[in-house]
Amino acid sequence: MNQAPRIEHRPSVCPHDCPSSCSLNVEVIEGKTIGRVHGAQSNRYTAGVICAKVARYAERIHHPDRLLHPLRRIGPKGSGQFERISWDEALDIVARKFLEAEQDFGAGSVWPYYYAGTMGFVMRDGINRLRNVKNYSGQYSTICTTMAWTGYIAGTGKLAGPDPREMALSDCVVIWGTNPVHTQVNVMTHAARARKERGAKIVAIDIYMNATMKQADMALLVKPGTDGALACAVMHVLFRDGYADWDYLERYTDCPRDLEAHLRTRDPAWAAAITGLSVEEIEAFAKLVGETKRTYFRLGYGFGRQRNGAINMHAASCIAAVTGCWQYEGGGAFHNNGAIYHWNKTLIEGLDVRDPAIRQLDQSQIGRVLTGEPQALRHGGPVTAMLIQNTNPVSVAPEQELVKAGFAREDLFVCVHEQFMTETALMADIVLPATMFMEHDDFYQGGGHQYFQLGLKLVEPPGECRSNHEVVRELARRVGAQHRGFEMEPREIIDWTLQNSGWGTIENLEEQVHIDAQPSFREAHYLDGFGYKDGKFRFRPDWTKVPSKNDGPMGPWADIPALPDHWGVIEEATPDYPFRLATSPARNFLNSTFTETPTSQAKEGRPEVMIHPLDAEPHGIADGDWVKLANARGEVFLRARHYDGVRRGVLIAESIWPNAAHPFGRGINTLTGADQVAPYGGAAFHDNRVALVKEEPAVT
């Protein structure tokens, strides 16, 4: 008689680039393999709910295409021709190439490049310890958060806000510039609870009728890059109709009388002409938030990915200050809770040896860096060697034609440490197999909530996979980099970081699994003052001094409006490029992650672009036809999908399919720009003007 397999339920944490950082309950089968993955009930934000992608993680961790052994390129770059070698041979080659680059062009010619393939602190950020010890070129990380964080902090002075669990205690939840049904399902968990238990209204504001908009009580479909105009018109109505809380404004904000005067000409008719909304829709939204003291503004990243994104984020956050809803449980404006944890990352990143004079190369401008643009190189020498962990720039970085040209350089040595043969790994000289999150120890914080959590190793990695920490440590030894962090195990680093950040020991965290770091109500709601020295919320921020991580003012920062406004710096449509394109997240992919799993592939189908039927008709474009999108950066072929849930003149291409899924290997980021936007840079992925024609690719 066959005995049922032994199944243990073990705690873990989702490591992926999502604000939810869900607490997990993982089935470990016979101590060797992963079964189903569930949301942990013990974490009150996760509340037992996780996305379908992670629920079926066994598909990914046990995927037959995982990289299992170190590889050396033996054919042309991008050919996929590799041979298996040993770990010692691979690491010796990488170290030799780094030392040669350092000898020929200086330490700055080596560029460690990484991002958020894992959000675990040890495995994500440990590459910086190698960078800082060796004085390799720095990385200014701009590809995701820069505009949104800057815009939010411009008002509050701090990246923190009301407890996200308070959404369940709201009478109105405004979900603005994020599609949580696709990207952070827990937002919907708490908003839906408020609707069920309190009769709360859910308002969604976005640029197409996505899954979240369809679940809302009020869905406001705005043109891309016009959120600031909507926010201004809403505040105009709040002042005009007596909904502004003047006691709150005088006590907690910097210049409310100036703001009121400025907004007198920003009425709903003005905003309707800009946003595409009707006057009636704007009036109704303003009335709802004006009359509903417990309004929770959940502000996402999406509307920050425009060239005016920081300004729009700031304008949206200002509404909560005008109504004074910060004072109430279930009220206020929230974007991210990163500031509440106060981590000391000295050991993880080697901050004690960091030289602030080392040049910072813009992550988003990797194409310009690798093709030798002097400004992108900060007028320094070339990059001739790279170590890449946790990211796939050949798919996800903007200006793909430049990115590909840079990686094709014969004088550029690239080592990629990865889980699958990504399109970046295909361009590498050395490919190293990486562990996944259940195969190593790490710890994580929530951006969209208030927990930090421990995720310990649950199963052995397959083949010869090694963790990021192991790779960085072994390279450090070979290139002569000395730091105590290289001599420590992940558990020791976690323990030191917890203790030196005021959060106890790893034993405490191991016992509790996750710790609630939420500040007091008064602090979270800024009832004792906002994050600036004078305690005032800023309607008129100094955009050159917003206390958000930066590398100095960038883009047309001197032209930013002094007070909240519509700033027309976006890529407006032109006669040559009459459509505006946004590259929004898909439900079953996460950037280029999960594009390798069969269920996600099947559910997403194929690369498509949504087009309004009335826009398709004059071009003779039927549903499912091939179309070509083009702008000055390049051209991409996709299938057309008729959808009346987009505005006329707007195109939506969900997700980042691999370049190889498109004809000629040109993916959607061929069309996106890497110009540095104001005030601190960043990539405006959702802000692209394009031409569209019906055209079949000559080769499919």
Classify the secondary structure makeup into a structural class: alpha/beta
Write down how many β-strands occur, each being a DSSP E stretch of 2 or more residues. 25
- SS summary, helix count: 25
- Rg over alpha carbons: 25 Å
Strand content: 15-25%
Strand order of the largest sheet: 5-4-16-15-14-6
Query: Roughly what percent helix?
Result: 25-40%
Biggest sheet features: 6 strands, mixed
Q: Determine the mean pLDDT.
A: 97
- End-to-end C-alpha gap: 53 Å
What is the molecular shape?
A: globular
Low-confidence stretches: none
Structure description:
This protein has 700 residues and is an alpha/beta fold. Helices cover 29% and strands 17% of the residues. It is built from 25 helices and 25 strands. Helix 6 packs parallel to helix 15 and helix 10 crosses helix 14. The longest helix has 19 residues, at 87-105. The radius of gyration is 25 Å and the shape is globular. It starts with 6 loop residues before the first strand and ends in a 6-residue tail after the last strand. The model has no long low-confidence stretch (mean pLDDT 97).
Brief description of this entry?
The protein has 700 residues and is α/β, with parallel strands linked by helices.
Spell out the key features of this protein.
alpha/beta; 700 residues; single chain; six-stranded mixed sheet; 17% strand
